[in-house]
Amino acid sequence: MDGVAGWVNWRAFLAGASPGEGWEIELWSDARYADDITEHLGPYSVLNTVPSPEEQSEFRPGLILRFFDYAPDVGRAALLSLSLGTRVKSGGAVRHFTTETGPHGMPIDWGRRSLQVPQQRSRSIVPSARRWSGAIGMSVRNIKDAIPLVSMYPTLSSGAAITLVRAARQYQEGLWVCEVDPELAWLRFIGALETAASFDPEATTTAVERLEDVAPELVGVLREACPGTLGQVADLLDGKLGATSRFVEFVLAHDPGPPSSRPMKPTRQVNWAQLRQNLSKIYDWRSKALHTGLPLPAPMLAETRTWGLADEPDETVGGLGEGNETAMWTARDIPMRLHVFEHLTRGVLQGWWASLGAA
C-alpha cells in the first residue's frame, strides 16, 4: 500500500471516523513561504514556522505538517513539493498527540529522521526552486497555492493515488538533489514522467508515429528509399521501442507550454515547436546513461547563465554548440537545460494530476 496511507486517512476523516493519535512533522525547505493551511485539507494542516530573514537562503524546518490518526506519511511532503515547485522534505515527527498528552501534545525527538541537506550554490541550476527575486533576495511562495491540487487527493482512485505519490516522490528527489547531482535530477524527473505515463491511458498513435518518436532518422530514410515497407518495419518494431513513445506522447498530452519568463534573444530559447524531437533526444540520453554508462552532456548539467540583470537564464545552447576541456556538443545534442526540463516536468505532472481529479 505504498503511498496510499494519507489517502486512506483522509477518506476516513471524510467518512466521519473519530480521530486517534496525532503528529507534527518538520518539513525542511530552502524556499520562503507565506500563510498557513488550516482548512481545505481534511485532517491535515500546514503551518509556517516563519524563519528569521538570516535563515531565508538556508535549509531549515520552514513548515510543520500536523495531522491525526495514521503514522507519518512521507508522501505528503512529496505532494507539497510537486504542487509548489519547491524543495520540501520530511525531517520526521517532532510532536505527538494522544489522549494522555492533551490538546498541546508532547514534544518528541525519537520521531526524527536523518536528512541529507544539499549544499547551496552561489548560482543555481534550477533557480525557481528557491524563488530568488533579484537583489531583494527570495520572493515568497504562498502555501495556499497547494490547496487546489492537494485537496483532490482523497477523491482519486487508490491506483491513481499510489501512482501520483510515486511520481511526486521522484520529482521531489530530483528537485532536492539538482544543485549537487544534476545528472541524477534529470533521471529522477524523467522517471517521474515515466511513472505517471504508465498509469495514463495509451495514446491513440500509429506504429509509424511511435517509431518516429524513437528513430526519426530511420523513418526519414525509409520514407525516402522504400516507403512501401515503412508500415511493416514500424509494426515489427512496435512494442520493443514503445517506452520512448509512451514518454513523449504523455508529455505532449499535458504540455504546459514554455516558461512564462524567457531569455530576450530567441536563439537562447528552446524552440517549443520542436518539443517532440527534443523529448526523443532527452529519452535517448537517458537510455545511454542508464544502459551504457555514457554521462549526460555537460551543458545539460551546468549552472544557469544570464546576460544581464533583467534577462532570464539561457534555456538551451546558443550558436552552433558548446564544449569543455574534454568534449564538444552541437546545439542538436542539447535539447534544453535542466531548469527548463524541471518547468516542463512540474507542469506536465500538475496538469496530469488535475486531470485525475476531473476524471
Annotate the secondary structure layout.
Blueprint (H helix, E strand, L loop, with lengths): L4 H10 L7 E8 L2 E3 L9 E5 L11 E9 L6 H10 L4 E9 L8 E2 L32 E3 L4 H4 L7 H20 L4 H18 L7 H8 L1 H10 L4 H8 L4 H12 L21 H17 L29 E3 L4 E3 L7 H21 L1
Parallel strand pairs: 2-7
Antiparallel strand pairs: 1-4, 1-5, 3-4, 5-6, 8-9
Helix pairs in contact: 2-4, 4-5, 4-11, 5-9, 5-11, 6-7, 6-8, 6-9, 9-10
Q: How would you describe what is shown here?
A:
With 359 residues, the protein is α+β, with helices and mostly antiparallel strands. The chain has 2 domains: 5-180, no CATH class; 197-346, no CATH class. The protein is built from 11 helices and 9 strands. A 5-stranded antiparallel sheet has the order 3-4-1-5-6. It has a two-stranded parallel ribbon with strand order 2-7. Strand 8 (321-323) and strand 9 form a beta hairpin. Helix 5 crosses helix 9 and helix 5 (182-199) packs parallel to helix 11. The protein is globular and about 80 Å long. The chain starts with a helix and ends with a helix. Mean pLDDT is 85; it is low at 132-137.
